[in-house]
Write a structure and sequence with these properties.
Length: about 180
């Protein structure tokens, strides 16, 4: 939670995806909750990272938008319906429908970008062959951990960003499995 007040000035408290209006350090009733757009949430999330992660996340965000300028943007704050943290926040790009075994489905992002304790994770979701990322991009990527759907690295200087971009392009263009 971030406080945006100074002395007797009016401000707001940031609560993940919304601002609560405050004056003189006291927050007002829920009638004064201001929700942030997805773009504002993404900007805030990146801005709250420490360097060099902040610059690396901004660079990746811009690269992904260059690859797919019209893609749907998402922001997942990592909290469940009970407001408990269940994952790191994620910036999402693109959209596909996940179909579950019980017959239900939901829309979700194709590419995820997330800060973690040791660096950055890029998620490429919906790949049927869980060895594809490691076999196709792993050797040329540089100092990164590659699993079935996640590429994790400490900083951009440790990896070949053009190879990462190729993996992201693949993730945005493939036909996804449910």
């Amino acid at each position: 939670m971030s406080f945006y007040t100074r002395g007797s000035e009016k401000g707001a408290v940031y609560l993940g995806n919304k601002y609560l209006a405050c004056e003189r350090g006291r927050c007002l009733t829920s009638n004064f909750i201001f929700y942030m757009s997805v773009q504002e949430q993404i900007k805030e999330y990146i801005a709250n990272q420490l360097e060099p992660k902040r610059s690396d996340m901004q660079t990746l965000h811009q690269r992904i938008l260059q690859v797919s300028p019209e893609c749907k943007l998402w922001f997942e704050d990592g909290k469940n319906s009970e407001n408990k943290t269940v994952s790191n926040p994620n910036i999402g790009y693109g959209s596909y429908t996940i179909k579950y075994a019980n017959g239900t489905s939901r829309d979700f992002f194709r590419i995820g970008l997330s800060a973690n304790k040791t660096g950055i994770s890029v998620y490429i979701l919906g790949i049927k062959d869980k060895t594809y990322l490691a076999e196709t991009y792993g050797k040329e990527l540089g100092k990164a951990s590659v699993t079935g759907y996640c590429i994790k690295f400490k900083t951009l200087k440790d990896i070949n960003i053009d190879v990462l971009e190729a993996a992201i392009r693949y993730g945005l263009e493939i036909q996804h499995v449910g």
